[in-house]
């Protein structure tokens, strides 16, 4: 459904043009007539012949300007034209233009400046910015089985980013969530902490453009594998290097609460370079995590990314544990506990190949809307070797095939999975996008097939509709009933009330003796 939605929105997009107005040691500032539709985290593009290439990741936004770090090896100078793609009326100046690279959201090397230079340029800094999002979601589940499976779940979220408050060096960021089942309200009303989640809550002070300090709960993108840290995080940059340190504690595992007995500390060094016609980024970190202030884990984290080969992006990350306890005795070790690597090759806009190897541990979700069949597919396909080929033989037609292989010591036999999809965007006559796909799983736990078909189209300006059908068959190991399930879904979203988004989705699952349904309503206000 995500794929179909993206294709549908591709035809409901307008282009905003801006120019580079100022370049500091860390950020590039872009001036627009207005920035309506641009959000923090979006990507700005530069134009290279008939291609739009990712250039800047937006970290800050005001009503007429954006600022962020470069994510391209190409040189960006004052008055360089940049483009933002936002929802709206069709206004492509060149309909044949294709985005031919995948954005990699990482900082780039920008020459360092002295404190004196920063002082002389302070008047050029953009005005303080404030952005955020408030959302209310209602999730209802119903079935023809036991009424204990029927429930309604409410979820409220509040995200806020206030940058350079009052023109000072202070910034504030938060992401809060409050979720509960309606029939549990009597209990929750007296135990609010059981429904409350804090994913981000921190204050930042920028001493200058290259040195800053975070206080509170903050997820550092350079050491994201460590997770959010409750405490202090310091970072400074010089001549392409960034060094940082963190001290604090980890959130509790069951409810993301504060637990200062889970004390941790560490440091990292980050380097960005230009190499050949591309770029290279390296991060090396060392962290010690404790439980009740006794060492629980000590490990090294390393991440590497480069585009030295034209049209190719290589990524690698790993964790190496240095500590373990055997028979109540502490020992030093050198054990590879996590590994992920990938290669993404795009020789042209007509063809791409993606190859990866994943030996990371399974993901545990604090919140998820995944169904049982979705979770089975993810658990059986994420780890191991995987390759994906994507083709665009003609305009608006996309073909993809993928194959995965996994063999762990705990598996009685190797697991194989393969599949493919076909998408046609803007079907003549109905102006819709359609996707048909097939996936097969063969493992020691389950064998199964998944067939699906999705259709999406804009009804009127600002209102999108999509329909979906899926047929799933799973044959589990002995003792677990097989599953033959048909699923139908329909969704409707509208931007007519900007900046308010309304979104409705229904999914019905039907088996031989039981049926169930899920209904999601979402109201989001952006500012």
Please summarize what this structure is.
By secondary structure, the protein is mainly beta. It has helices at 2-10, 115-121, 185-188, 372-381, and strands at residues 13-23, 28-31, 43-48, 51-61, 65-70, 81-87, 98-99, 129-143, 151-163, 170-181, 196-206, 211-218, 229-238, 241-249, 263-275, 278-291, 294-306, 312-326, 329-348, 351-358, 384-391, 397-406, 415-427, 432-442, 446-460, 463-476, 483-497, 500-510, 515-526.
Outline the biggest β-sheet. 22 strands, antiparallel, barrel
What proportion of the residues is helical, as a percent range? under 10%
Question: What amount of the residues lies in strands?
Answer: over 45%
In round numbers, the mean pLDDT is: 82
Counting helices, strands and paired strands, the structural category is mainly beta
Q: Which regions have little confidence, pLDDT < 50, spanning 5+ residues?
A: 1-12, 89-124
Tally of helical runs: 4
Supply Rg.
Answer: 25 Å
Molecular shape: globular
Number of strands: 29
**How far apart are the first and last residues' alpha carbons, in Å?**
27 Å
Question: What does this protein look like?
Answer:
There is one protein chain. This protein is mainly beta. 6% of the residues lie in helices and 60% in strands. It is built from four helices and 29 strands. It has a 22-stranded antiparallel beta barrel. Strands 1, 2, 3, 4, 5, 6 and 7 form a seven-stranded mixed beta sheet that branches. Strand 28 and strand 29 form a beta hairpin. The longest helix has 10 residues, at 372-381. It is globular, with a radius of gyration of 25 Å.
């Amino acid at each position: 459904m995500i794929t179909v939605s993206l294709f549908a929105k591709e035809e409901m997009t307008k282009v905003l043009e801006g120019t580079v107005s100022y370049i500091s040691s860390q950020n590039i500032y872009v001036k627009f007539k207005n920035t309506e539709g641009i959000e923090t985290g979006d990507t700005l593009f530069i134009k290279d012949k008939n291609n739009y290439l990712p250039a800047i990741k937006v970290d800050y936004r005001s009503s007429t300007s954006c600022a962020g770090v470069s994510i391209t090896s190409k040189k960006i100078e004052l008055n360089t034209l940049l483009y933002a793609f936002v929802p709206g009326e069709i206004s492509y100046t060149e309909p044949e233009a294709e985005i031919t690279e995948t954005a990699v959201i990482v900082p780039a090397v920008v020459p360092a400046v002295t404190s004196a230079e920063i002082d002389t340029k302070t008047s050029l800094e953009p005005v303080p910015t404030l952005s955020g999002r408030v959302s209310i979601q209602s999730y209802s589940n119903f079935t023809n089985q036991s009424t204990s499976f029927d429930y309604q779940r409410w979820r409220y979220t509040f995200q806020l980013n206030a940058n350079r408050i009052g023109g000072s060096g202070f910034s504030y960021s938060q992401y809060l969530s409050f979720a509960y089942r309606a029939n549990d309200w009597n209990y929750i009303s007296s135990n609010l902490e059981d429904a409350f989640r804090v994913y981000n809550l921190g204050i930042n002070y920028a001493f200058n453009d290259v040195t800053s300090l975070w206080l509170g709960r903050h997820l550092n993108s350079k050491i994201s594998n460590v997770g959010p840290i409750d405490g202090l995080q310091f970072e400074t940059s010089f001549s392409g290097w960034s060094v940082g340190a963190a001290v604090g504690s980890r959130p509790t595992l069951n409810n993301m609460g504060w637990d200062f007995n889970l004390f941790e500390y560490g440091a990292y060094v980050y380097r960005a370079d230009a190499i050949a016609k591309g770029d290279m980024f390296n991060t090396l970190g060392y962290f010690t995590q404790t439980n009740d202030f006794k060492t629980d884990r000590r490990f090294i984290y390393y991440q590497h990314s480069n585009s030295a080969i034209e049209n190719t992006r290589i990524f690698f990350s790993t964790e190496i544990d240095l500590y373990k306890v055997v028979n109540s005795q502490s020992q030093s070790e050198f054990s590879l506990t996590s590994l992920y690597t990938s290669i993404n090759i795009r020789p042209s806009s007509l063809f791409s190949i993606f190859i990866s190897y994943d030996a990371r541990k399974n993901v545990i979700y604090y919140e998820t809307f995944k169904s049982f069949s979705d979770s089975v597919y993810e658990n059986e396909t994420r780890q191991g070797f995987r390759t994906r080929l994507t083709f665009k033989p003609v305009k608006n037609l996309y073909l993809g095939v993928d194959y995965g292989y996994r063999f762990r010591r705990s598996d009685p036999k190797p697991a194989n999975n393969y599949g493919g999809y076909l998408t046609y965007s803007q079907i003549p006559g109905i102006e819709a996008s359609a996707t048909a796909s097939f996936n097969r799983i063969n493992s020691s736990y389950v064998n199964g097939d998944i067939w699906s078909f999705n259709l999406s189209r804009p009804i009127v300006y600002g209102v999108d509709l999509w329909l979906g059908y899926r047929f799933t068959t799973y044959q589990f190991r002995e003792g677990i009933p097989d599953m033959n399930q048909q699923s139908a879904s329909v969704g409707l979203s509208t931007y007519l009330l900007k900046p308010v988004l309304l979104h409705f989705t229904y999914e019905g699952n039907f088996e031989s003796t039981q049926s169930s349904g899920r209904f999601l309503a979402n109201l989001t206000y952006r500012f």
